[in-house]
Amino acid sequence: xxxxxxxxxxxxxxxxxxxxxxxxxxxxxxxxxxxxxxxxxxxxxxxxxxxxxxxxxxxxxxxxxxxxxxxxxxxxxxxxxxxxxxxxxxxxxxxxxxxxxxxxxxxxxxxxxxxxxxxxxxxxxxxxxxxxxxxxxxxxxxxxxxxxxxxxxxxxxxxxxxxxxxxxxxxxxxxxxxxxxxxxxxxxxxxxxxxxxxxxxxxxxxxxxxxxxxxxxxxxxxxxxxxxxxxxxxxxxxxxxxxxxxxxxxxxxxxxxxxxxxxxxxxxxxxxxxxxxxxxxxxxxxxxxxxxxxxxxxxxxxxxxxxxxxxxxxxxxxxxxxxxxxxxxxxxxxxxxxxxxxxxxxxxxxxxxxxxxxxxxxxxxxxxxxxxxxxxxxxxxxxxxxxxxxxxxxxxxxxxxxxxxxxxxxxxxxxxxxxxxxxxxxxxxxxxxxxxxxxxxxxxxxxxxxxxxxxxxxxxxxxxxxxx
Length: 468
Ligand SMILES: Nc1ncnc2c1ncn2[C@@H]1O[C@H](COP(=O)(O)OP(=O)(O)OP(=O)(O)O)[C@@H](O)[C@H]1O
Ligand SMILES: [Mg+2]
Fold this sequence. Notes:
Phosphatidylinositol 3-kinase Catalytic Subunit, Chain A, Domain 5, Phosphorylase Kinase, domain 1, 14 strands, single chain, binds adenosine-5'-triphosphate, binds magnesium ion
Protein backbone atom coordinates (compact mmCIF):
# COMPACT_ATOMS: atom_id res chain seq x y z
CA UNK A 1 0.00 0.00 0.00
CA UNK A 2 1.68 3.22 -1.06
CA UNK A 3 1.76 6.48 0.85
CA UNK A 4 -0.39 9.33 -0.47
CA UNK A 5 1.47 11.51 -2.97
CA UNK A 6 1.73 15.30 -3.02
CA UNK A 7 1.84 15.50 -6.81
CA UNK A 8 1.72 13.38 -9.96
CA UNK A 9 2.62 13.77 -13.61
CA UNK A 10 -0.30 13.71 -16.02
CA UNK A 11 0.18 12.31 -19.50
CA UNK A 12 -2.33 12.25 -22.30
CA UNK A 13 -2.73 9.92 -25.24
CA UNK A 14 -3.19 12.19 -28.25
CA UNK A 15 -5.61 11.34 -31.07
CA UNK A 16 -2.63 10.11 -33.13
CA UNK A 17 -1.86 7.55 -30.40
CA UNK A 18 1.30 9.22 -29.07
CA UNK A 19 1.45 9.61 -25.30
CA UNK A 20 2.99 12.87 -24.08
CA UNK A 21 3.36 14.47 -20.70
CA UNK A 22 0.77 17.23 -20.46
CA UNK A 23 1.47 18.55 -16.98
CA UNK A 24 1.66 17.99 -13.26
CA UNK A 25 -1.13 17.92 -10.73
CA UNK A 26 -0.62 18.62 -7.05
CA UNK A 27 -2.72 18.71 -3.91
CA UNK A 28 -3.33 22.06 -2.37
CA UNK A 29 -4.75 22.64 1.09
CA UNK A 30 -5.02 20.53 4.22
CA UNK A 31 -3.79 17.08 3.30
CA UNK A 32 -6.22 15.32 5.63
CA UNK A 33 -9.28 16.86 4.05
CA UNK A 34 -11.14 14.94 1.36
CA UNK A 35 -11.99 18.31 -0.15
CA UNK A 36 -8.35 19.21 -0.78
CA UNK A 37 -8.23 21.07 -4.04
CA UNK A 38 -5.96 20.55 -7.02
CA UNK A 39 -3.49 22.74 -8.83
CA UNK A 40 -2.43 21.77 -12.33
CA UNK A 41 0.41 23.10 -14.49
CA UNK A 42 0.99 22.27 -18.13
CA UNK A 43 4.55 21.43 -19.20
CA UNK A 44 6.13 23.97 -21.55
CA UNK A 45 6.53 21.26 -24.16
CA UNK A 46 2.80 20.50 -24.11
CA UNK A 47 1.82 24.16 -24.36
CA UNK A 48 3.92 24.52 -27.51
CA UNK A 49 3.14 21.07 -28.99
CA UNK A 50 0.99 21.70 -32.09
CA UNK A 51 -0.85 18.43 -31.40
CA UNK A 52 -1.70 19.49 -27.84
CA UNK A 53 -5.20 20.59 -26.88
CA UNK A 54 -6.84 22.04 -23.76
CA UNK A 55 -7.65 18.98 -21.66
CA UNK A 56 -10.97 20.66 -20.88
CA UNK A 57 -12.23 24.22 -21.37
CA UNK A 58 -11.43 25.10 -17.74
CA UNK A 59 -7.83 23.95 -18.31
CA UNK A 60 -6.64 26.30 -21.05
CA UNK A 61 -3.03 25.80 -22.11
CA UNK A 62 -1.05 28.47 -20.29
CA UNK A 63 2.22 28.39 -18.45
CA UNK A 64 0.71 29.39 -15.10
CA UNK A 65 -1.01 27.31 -12.43
CA UNK A 66 -4.64 26.28 -12.95
CA UNK A 67 -6.59 25.84 -9.74
CA UNK A 68 -9.93 24.30 -8.92
CA UNK A 69 -12.31 27.15 -8.52
CA UNK A 70 -15.03 27.57 -5.97
CA UNK A 71 -18.15 25.63 -6.89
CA UNK A 72 -16.12 22.72 -8.23
CA UNK A 73 -14.41 19.83 -6.52
CA UNK A 74 -11.92 19.28 -9.27
CA UNK A 75 -10.81 20.35 -12.74
CA UNK A 76 -12.91 19.21 -15.71
CA UNK A 77 -10.81 16.60 -17.47
CA UNK A 78 -9.28 15.31 -14.24
CA UNK A 79 -12.70 15.03 -12.60
CA UNK A 80 -14.05 13.00 -15.49
CA UNK A 81 -11.32 10.40 -14.96
CA UNK A 82 -11.91 10.25 -11.21
CA UNK A 83 -13.97 7.72 -9.34
CA UNK A 84 -17.43 8.66 -8.21
CA UNK A 85 -19.49 7.33 -5.30
CA UNK A 86 -18.96 3.62 -5.99
CA UNK A 87 -15.27 3.85 -6.92
CA UNK A 88 -14.45 6.09 -3.98
CA UNK A 89 -16.05 3.65 -1.57
CA UNK A 90 -13.88 0.84 -2.92
CA UNK A 91 -10.69 2.90 -2.87
CA UNK A 92 -11.42 4.23 0.61
CA UNK A 93 -11.99 0.72 1.94
CA UNK A 94 -8.70 -0.63 0.64
CA UNK A 95 -6.28 2.31 0.88
CA UNK A 96 -5.54 5.37 3.02
CA UNK A 97 -6.72 7.56 0.12
CA UNK A 98 -8.77 10.52 1.32
CA UNK A 99 -7.94 13.58 -0.78
CA UNK A 100 -9.00 14.43 -4.31
CA UNK A 101 -5.48 13.71 -5.56
CA UNK A 102 -5.45 10.36 -3.75
CA UNK A 103 -8.66 9.32 -5.46
CA UNK A 104 -7.35 10.47 -8.80
CA UNK A 105 -4.12 8.50 -8.46
CA UNK A 106 -5.70 5.32 -7.11
CA UNK A 107 -7.90 4.69 -10.13
CA UNK A 108 -6.96 1.53 -12.00
CA UNK A 109 -4.69 2.72 -14.81
CA UNK A 110 -5.73 0.05 -17.31
CA UNK A 111 -9.38 1.02 -17.21
CA UNK A 112 -9.18 4.74 -16.35
CA UNK A 113 -11.82 6.74 -18.21
CA UNK A 114 -10.52 8.75 -21.16
CA UNK A 115 -6.97 9.40 -22.37
CA UNK A 116 -5.23 10.66 -19.22
CA UNK A 117 -2.70 8.59 -17.27
CA UNK A 118 -0.84 9.44 -14.08
CA UNK A 119 2.74 8.69 -13.13
CA UNK A 120 4.94 9.23 -10.10
CA UNK A 121 8.24 11.13 -10.17
CA UNK A 122 10.05 7.96 -11.27
CA UNK A 123 7.78 7.65 -14.30
CA UNK A 124 5.88 4.63 -12.96
CA UNK A 125 2.19 4.55 -13.83
CA UNK A 126 0.00 5.13 -10.82
CA UNK A 127 -2.93 2.79 -10.33
CA UNK A 128 -1.23 -0.02 -12.24
CA UNK A 129 -2.53 -3.36 -10.97
CA UNK A 130 -0.69 -6.66 -10.96
CA UNK A 131 -3.69 -8.52 -12.32
CA UNK A 132 -4.90 -8.14 -15.88
CA UNK A 133 -8.41 -6.76 -16.39
CA UNK A 134 -10.94 -9.54 -15.64
CA UNK A 135 -12.61 -11.41 -18.46
CA UNK A 136 -16.32 -11.13 -19.02
CA UNK A 137 -16.82 -14.66 -17.64
CA UNK A 138 -15.46 -13.46 -14.27
CA UNK A 139 -18.52 -11.27 -13.82
CA UNK A 140 -20.29 -13.65 -11.45
CA UNK A 141 -17.30 -13.46 -9.12
CA UNK A 142 -17.26 -9.65 -9.41
CA UNK A 143 -20.98 -9.37 -8.67
CA UNK A 144 -20.58 -11.66 -5.63
CA UNK A 145 -17.75 -9.43 -4.38
CA UNK A 146 -19.86 -6.29 -4.95
CA UNK A 147 -22.76 -7.82 -3.04
CA UNK A 148 -20.47 -8.74 -0.14
CA UNK A 149 -19.08 -5.20 -0.19
CA UNK A 150 -22.56 -3.67 -0.13
CA UNK A 151 -23.37 -5.85 2.87
CA UNK A 152 -20.11 -4.80 4.58
CA UNK A 153 -18.94 -8.42 4.61
CA UNK A 154 -16.25 -8.44 1.94
CA UNK A 155 -12.99 -10.30 2.39
CA UNK A 156 -9.65 -8.74 1.43
CA UNK A 157 -9.66 -10.92 -1.66
CA UNK A 158 -13.08 -9.60 -2.66
CA UNK A 159 -12.01 -6.01 -2.11
CA UNK A 160 -9.03 -6.69 -4.37
CA UNK A 161 -11.37 -8.10 -7.03
CA UNK A 162 -13.41 -4.88 -6.94
CA UNK A 163 -10.36 -2.62 -7.02
CA UNK A 164 -8.99 -4.60 -9.97
CA UNK A 165 -12.38 -4.39 -11.69
CA UNK A 166 -11.85 -0.68 -12.10
CA UNK A 167 -12.99 2.28 -10.11
CA UNK A 168 -12.85 5.12 -12.60
CA UNK A 169 -16.25 5.25 -14.28
CA UNK A 170 -18.46 7.81 -12.58
CA UNK A 171 -21.83 7.01 -11.17
CA UNK A 172 -23.25 5.45 -8.07
CA UNK A 173 -24.16 1.94 -9.17
CA UNK A 174 -21.62 -0.89 -8.93
CA UNK A 175 -19.55 -1.12 -12.07
CA UNK A 176 -16.64 -3.07 -13.44
CA UNK A 177 -14.59 -3.01 -16.58
CA UNK A 178 -14.03 -6.40 -18.15
CA UNK A 179 -12.50 -7.64 -21.36
CA UNK A 180 -14.64 -9.27 -23.99
CA UNK A 181 -13.15 -10.36 -27.28
CA UNK A 182 -9.93 -8.52 -26.33
CA UNK A 183 -11.73 -5.18 -25.85
CA UNK A 184 -12.78 -3.28 -22.77
CA UNK A 185 -16.46 -3.31 -21.87
CA UNK A 186 -18.21 -1.62 -19.01
CA UNK A 187 -20.39 -3.86 -16.87
CA UNK A 188 -23.03 -2.13 -14.83
CA UNK A 189 -25.29 -3.84 -12.35
CA UNK A 190 -28.11 -2.86 -10.06
CA UNK A 191 -27.70 -2.37 -6.36
CA UNK A 192 -28.77 -5.39 -4.39
CA UNK A 193 -31.87 -3.56 -3.21
CA UNK A 194 -33.13 -2.75 -6.71
CA UNK A 195 -35.54 -5.50 -7.66
CA UNK A 196 -37.16 -4.01 -10.73
CA UNK A 197 -34.29 -5.02 -13.00
CA UNK A 198 -33.06 -1.51 -13.85
CA UNK A 199 -30.40 -2.88 -16.19
CA UNK A 200 -33.05 -4.58 -18.33
CA UNK A 201 -34.81 -1.22 -18.50
CA UNK A 202 -31.55 0.49 -19.43
CA UNK A 203 -30.98 -2.07 -22.18
CA UNK A 204 -34.54 -1.43 -23.38
CA UNK A 205 -33.88 2.31 -23.46
CA UNK A 206 -30.61 1.80 -25.35
CA UNK A 207 -32.40 -0.38 -27.89
CA UNK A 208 -35.07 2.32 -28.28
CA UNK A 209 -32.33 4.93 -28.70
CA UNK A 210 -30.76 2.85 -31.40
CA UNK A 211 -34.13 2.37 -33.07
CA UNK A 212 -34.60 6.14 -32.93
CA UNK A 213 -31.40 6.69 -34.91
CA UNK A 214 -29.30 7.73 -31.90
CA UNK A 215 -25.64 6.74 -31.72
CA UNK A 216 -25.47 3.94 -29.13
CA UNK A 217 -22.48 1.90 -27.98
CA UNK A 218 -22.48 -1.80 -28.69
CA UNK A 219 -24.26 -3.36 -25.73
CA UNK A 220 -25.59 -6.61 -24.35
CA UNK A 221 -27.58 -7.78 -21.35
CA UNK A 222 -26.52 -10.78 -19.27
CA UNK A 223 -29.19 -12.21 -17.04
CA UNK A 224 -28.19 -13.05 -13.46
CA UNK A 225 -31.54 -14.05 -12.03
CA UNK A 226 -35.21 -13.46 -12.72
CA UNK A 227 -35.06 -9.92 -11.44
CA UNK A 228 -31.46 -8.87 -12.02
CA UNK A 229 -29.16 -8.54 -14.95
CA UNK A 230 -25.90 -6.94 -16.01
CA UNK A 231 -25.64 -4.36 -18.76
CA UNK A 232 -22.48 -4.59 -20.82
CA UNK A 233 -21.46 -1.76 -23.09
CA UNK A 234 -18.33 -1.54 -25.16
CA UNK A 235 -16.04 1.21 -23.87
CA UNK A 236 -16.32 4.05 -26.37
CA UNK A 237 -13.24 5.77 -24.91
CA UNK A 238 -11.06 3.02 -26.33
CA UNK A 239 -10.23 2.09 -29.90
CA UNK A 240 -8.59 -1.31 -29.37
CA UNK A 241 -5.64 -0.27 -27.20
CA UNK A 242 -5.75 3.45 -27.95
CA UNK A 243 -7.22 5.68 -25.27
CA UNK A 244 -9.63 8.36 -26.46
CA UNK A 245 -9.99 11.65 -24.57
CA UNK A 246 -13.30 11.98 -22.74
CA UNK A 247 -15.03 14.83 -20.93
CA UNK A 248 -18.61 15.20 -19.76
CA UNK A 249 -21.01 17.97 -20.77
CA UNK A 250 -20.56 19.18 -17.20
CA UNK A 251 -16.90 19.84 -18.00
CA UNK A 252 -17.44 21.07 -21.54
CA UNK A 253 -19.78 23.79 -20.29
CA UNK A 254 -17.53 24.56 -17.25
CA UNK A 255 -20.61 24.68 -15.11
CA UNK A 256 -20.29 24.74 -11.35
CA UNK A 257 -21.42 21.66 -9.47
CA UNK A 258 -24.58 23.19 -8.07
CA UNK A 259 -25.63 25.35 -10.98
CA UNK A 260 -28.13 24.17 -13.57
CA UNK A 261 -27.61 24.94 -17.22
CA UNK A 262 -30.13 24.27 -19.97
CA UNK A 263 -29.92 22.16 -23.09
CA UNK A 264 -29.83 25.27 -25.24
CA UNK A 265 -26.68 26.30 -23.32
CA UNK A 266 -25.17 22.91 -24.10
CA UNK A 267 -26.15 23.22 -27.77
CA UNK A 268 -24.41 26.62 -27.88
CA UNK A 269 -21.30 25.37 -26.13
CA UNK A 270 -20.87 22.27 -28.21
CA UNK A 271 -20.99 24.38 -31.35
CA UNK A 272 -17.73 26.02 -30.20
CA UNK A 273 -15.95 22.70 -29.69
CA UNK A 274 -17.45 20.17 -32.08
CA UNK A 275 -15.81 19.59 -35.45
CA UNK A 276 -19.32 19.01 -36.86
CA UNK A 277 -21.56 21.36 -34.86
CA UNK A 278 -24.79 20.94 -36.79
CA UNK A 279 -24.56 17.13 -36.74
CA UNK A 280 -23.91 17.13 -33.00
CA UNK A 281 -26.64 19.68 -32.31
CA UNK A 282 -29.18 17.62 -34.28
CA UNK A 283 -28.02 14.45 -32.51
CA UNK A 284 -28.34 16.16 -29.12
CA UNK A 285 -31.81 17.36 -30.08
CA UNK A 286 -32.80 13.78 -30.97
CA UNK A 287 -31.46 12.51 -27.63
CA UNK A 288 -33.41 15.12 -25.70
CA UNK A 289 -36.55 14.16 -27.64
CA UNK A 290 -36.02 10.54 -26.58
CA UNK A 291 -35.37 11.57 -22.96
CA UNK A 292 -38.66 13.42 -22.87
CA UNK A 293 -40.63 10.69 -24.61
CA UNK A 294 -39.42 7.88 -22.34
CA UNK A 295 -39.19 10.08 -19.20
CA UNK A 296 -35.48 9.44 -18.65
CA UNK A 297 -34.84 10.10 -14.98
CA UNK A 298 -31.09 10.30 -15.37
CA UNK A 299 -31.10 13.40 -17.50
CA UNK A 300 -28.15 15.52 -16.34
CA UNK A 301 -24.91 16.91 -17.75
CA UNK A 302 -22.66 14.10 -16.57
CA UNK A 303 -24.78 11.79 -18.65
CA UNK A 304 -23.69 13.38 -21.91
CA UNK A 305 -20.10 12.84 -22.95
CA UNK A 306 -17.67 14.11 -25.56
CA UNK A 307 -14.80 12.29 -27.23
CA UNK A 308 -11.64 13.95 -28.48
CA UNK A 309 -10.47 13.72 -32.04
CA UNK A 310 -7.97 15.78 -34.01
CA UNK A 311 -10.35 18.69 -34.47
CA UNK A 312 -12.37 18.96 -31.31
CA UNK A 313 -14.89 17.31 -29.02
CA UNK A 314 -17.76 15.29 -30.52
CA UNK A 315 -20.74 13.75 -28.74
CA UNK A 316 -19.94 10.27 -27.45
CA UNK A 317 -22.43 7.46 -27.93
CA UNK A 318 -25.41 7.75 -25.60
CA UNK A 319 -25.40 6.11 -22.14
CA UNK A 320 -27.22 5.95 -18.81
CA UNK A 321 -30.82 6.07 -19.97
CA UNK A 322 -33.39 5.10 -17.42
CA UNK A 323 -37.13 5.40 -18.05
CA UNK A 324 -38.98 6.40 -14.92
CA UNK A 325 -42.36 5.02 -13.98
CA UNK A 326 -43.36 8.26 -12.27
CA UNK A 327 -42.78 10.83 -15.00
CA UNK A 328 -43.86 13.78 -12.87
CA UNK A 329 -40.95 12.93 -10.55
CA UNK A 330 -38.35 13.32 -13.27
CA UNK A 331 -36.29 16.31 -12.24
CA UNK A 332 -34.15 17.03 -15.21
CA UNK A 333 -32.21 19.47 -17.33
CA UNK A 334 -34.41 22.34 -18.53
CA UNK A 335 -34.65 22.76 -22.29
CA UNK A 336 -34.15 26.52 -22.23
CA UNK A 337 -32.79 28.85 -19.61
CA UNK A 338 -35.30 29.17 -16.79
CA UNK A 339 -37.37 26.33 -18.30
CA UNK A 340 -39.22 23.60 -16.42
CA UNK A 341 -37.24 20.91 -14.63
CA UNK A 342 -40.33 18.84 -13.92
CA UNK A 343 -42.89 17.71 -16.44
CA UNK A 344 -41.08 19.17 -19.44
CA UNK A 345 -43.32 19.59 -22.46
CA UNK A 346 -41.80 18.30 -25.71
CA UNK A 347 -43.39 21.19 -27.62
CA UNK A 348 -40.97 23.46 -25.78
CA UNK A 349 -38.12 21.43 -27.27
CA UNK A 350 -39.56 21.84 -30.76
CA UNK A 351 -39.96 25.58 -30.13
CA UNK A 352 -36.28 25.81 -29.09
CA UNK A 353 -35.24 24.60 -32.58
CA UNK A 354 -33.11 27.69 -33.28
CA UNK A 355 -30.74 26.82 -30.45
CA UNK A 356 -30.05 23.53 -32.25
CA UNK A 357 -29.75 25.18 -35.68
CA UNK A 358 -32.85 23.36 -36.88
CA UNK A 359 -35.84 24.73 -38.70
CA UNK A 360 -39.16 24.32 -36.93
CA UNK A 361 -40.21 21.73 -39.50
CA UNK A 362 -37.05 19.69 -39.14
CA UNK A 363 -37.35 19.87 -35.36
CA UNK A 364 -40.96 18.65 -35.50
CA UNK A 365 -39.97 15.87 -37.85
CA UNK A 366 -37.17 14.64 -35.58
CA UNK A 367 -39.42 14.64 -32.53
CA UNK A 368 -42.16 12.80 -34.38
CA UNK A 369 -39.65 10.36 -35.86
CA UNK A 370 -38.27 9.45 -32.42
CA UNK A 371 -41.77 8.84 -31.10
CA UNK A 372 -42.79 6.81 -34.16
CA UNK A 373 -39.71 4.62 -34.12
CA UNK A 374 -40.16 3.72 -30.46
CA UNK A 375 -43.86 2.88 -30.33
CA UNK A 376 -43.20 -0.85 -29.89
CA UNK A 377 -41.31 -0.30 -26.64
CA UNK A 378 -43.29 -2.95 -24.72
CA UNK A 379 -42.11 -5.66 -27.10
CA UNK A 380 -38.55 -4.44 -26.72
CA UNK A 381 -38.87 -4.46 -22.91
CA UNK A 382 -40.31 -7.98 -22.92
CA UNK A 383 -37.50 -9.14 -25.20
CA UNK A 384 -35.10 -8.04 -22.46
CA UNK A 385 -36.85 -10.16 -19.86
CA UNK A 386 -39.22 -7.57 -18.41
CA UNK A 387 -42.65 -9.06 -17.76
CA UNK A 388 -45.62 -7.65 -19.69
CA UNK A 389 -47.12 -6.62 -16.32
CA UNK A 390 -44.01 -4.69 -15.32
CA UNK A 391 -43.84 -3.11 -18.77
CA UNK A 392 -47.47 -2.08 -18.40
CA UNK A 393 -46.72 -0.35 -15.12
CA UNK A 394 -44.28 1.91 -16.98
CA UNK A 395 -46.80 2.88 -19.62
CA UNK A 396 -47.58 6.23 -18.03
CA UNK A 397 -43.91 7.21 -18.36
CA UNK A 398 -43.16 5.88 -21.83
CA UNK A 399 -46.55 6.39 -23.44
CA UNK A 400 -47.22 9.69 -21.72
CA UNK A 401 -48.43 13.05 -23.01
CA UNK A 402 -45.07 13.81 -24.66
CA UNK A 403 -45.37 10.83 -26.98
CA UNK A 404 -48.86 11.92 -27.93
CA UNK A 405 -47.71 15.50 -28.53
CA UNK A 406 -44.72 14.24 -30.52
CA UNK A 407 -46.82 12.02 -32.77
CA UNK A 408 -49.20 14.92 -33.40
CA UNK A 409 -46.41 17.15 -34.73
CA UNK A 410 -46.45 17.64 -38.45
CA UNK A 411 -43.64 18.66 -40.74
CA UNK A 412 -42.68 18.54 -44.34
CA UNK A 413 -39.56 16.52 -43.61
CA UNK A 414 -38.92 13.00 -44.86
CA UNK A 415 -37.53 10.76 -42.11
CA UNK A 416 -34.58 8.57 -43.07
CA UNK A 417 -35.61 5.70 -45.32
CA UNK A 418 -36.90 2.60 -43.58
CA UNK A 419 -38.46 4.60 -40.78
CA UNK A 420 -41.81 5.23 -42.43
CA UNK A 421 -43.30 2.07 -40.97
CA UNK A 422 -42.12 2.35 -37.40
CA UNK A 423 -43.15 -1.10 -36.32
CA UNK A 424 -41.46 -3.04 -39.05
CA UNK A 425 -38.42 -0.74 -38.98
CA UNK A 426 -38.04 -1.26 -35.25
CA UNK A 427 -38.47 -4.98 -35.66
CA UNK A 428 -35.78 -5.00 -38.29
CA UNK A 429 -33.47 -3.06 -36.01
CA UNK A 430 -34.12 -5.38 -33.13
CA UNK A 431 -32.81 -8.15 -35.33
CA UNK A 432 -29.59 -6.18 -35.81
CA UNK A 433 -29.30 -5.60 -32.09
CA UNK A 434 -29.37 -9.29 -31.39
CA UNK A 435 -32.21 -8.86 -28.93
CA UNK A 436 -32.53 -10.84 -26.75
CA UNK A 437 -28.81 -10.77 -26.02
CA UNK A 438 -26.51 -13.46 -27.17
CA UNK A 439 -24.69 -14.10 -23.95
CA UNK A 440 -27.43 -14.21 -21.35
CA UNK A 441 -30.17 -16.65 -20.60
CA UNK A 442 -33.53 -15.06 -20.84
CA UNK A 443 -36.09 -15.31 -18.14
CA UNK A 444 -39.27 -13.46 -17.42
CA UNK A 445 -39.18 -11.26 -14.38
CA UNK A 446 -42.56 -11.53 -12.64
CA UNK A 447 -41.61 -9.20 -9.82
CA UNK A 448 -39.85 -6.69 -12.02
CA UNK A 449 -41.39 -3.27 -11.82
CA UNK A 450 -41.73 -3.08 -8.07
CA UNK A 451 -39.89 -0.69 -5.85
CA UNK A 452 -38.52 1.70 -8.44
CA UNK A 453 -36.63 4.42 -6.68
CA UNK A 454 -36.18 7.77 -8.28
CA UNK A 455 -32.96 9.51 -8.90
CA UNK A 456 -30.39 6.93 -7.83
CA UNK A 457 -26.92 8.29 -7.84
CA UNK A 458 -27.89 11.88 -7.43
CA UNK A 459 -26.34 14.18 -4.93
CA UNK A 460 -23.27 11.99 -4.65
CA UNK A 461 -19.73 12.82 -3.70
CA UNK A 462 -19.01 14.95 -6.75
CA UNK A 463 -21.84 17.28 -5.88
CA UNK A 464 -23.38 16.66 -9.26
CA UNK A 465 -26.49 18.47 -10.31
CA UNK A 466 -28.65 17.18 -7.53
CA UNK A 467 -31.11 15.23 -9.53
CA UNK A 468 -30.74 17.18 -12.73
N1 LIG B 1 -19.88 2.44 -22.98
C1 LIG B 1 -19.14 3.30 -22.27
N2 LIG B 1 -17.86 3.55 -22.62
C2 LIG B 1 -17.10 4.40 -21.92
N3 LIG B 1 -17.53 5.08 -20.86
C3 LIG B 1 -18.80 4.88 -20.46
C4 LIG B 1 -19.67 4.00 -21.14
N4 LIG B 1 -20.88 4.04 -20.51
C5 LIG B 1 -20.75 4.90 -19.49
N5 LIG B 1 -19.50 5.41 -19.45
C6 LIG B 1 -18.92 6.35 -18.49
O1 LIG B 1 -19.14 5.81 -17.20
C7 LIG B 1 -19.84 6.73 -16.39
C8 LIG B 1 -20.82 5.98 -15.52
O2 LIG B 1 -21.76 5.32 -16.33
P1 LIG B 1 -23.32 5.57 -16.13
O3 LIG B 1 -23.58 7.02 -16.24
O4 LIG B 1 -24.04 4.67 -17.07
O5 LIG B 1 -23.47 5.04 -14.65
P2 LIG B 1 -24.40 5.42 -13.40
O6 LIG B 1 -23.85 4.72 -12.22
O7 LIG B 1 -25.81 5.09 -13.70
O8 LIG B 1 -24.33 6.94 -13.22
P3 LIG B 1 -25.35 7.80 -12.37
O9 LIG B 1 -25.01 7.56 -10.96
O10 LIG B 1 -25.08 9.19 -12.88
O11 LIG B 1 -26.72 7.32 -12.74
C9 LIG B 1 -20.49 7.72 -17.35
O12 LIG B 1 -20.63 8.97 -16.75
C10 LIG B 1 -19.54 7.72 -18.52
O13 LIG B 1 -18.51 8.65 -18.27
MG1 LIG C 1 -24.45 8.46 -15.14
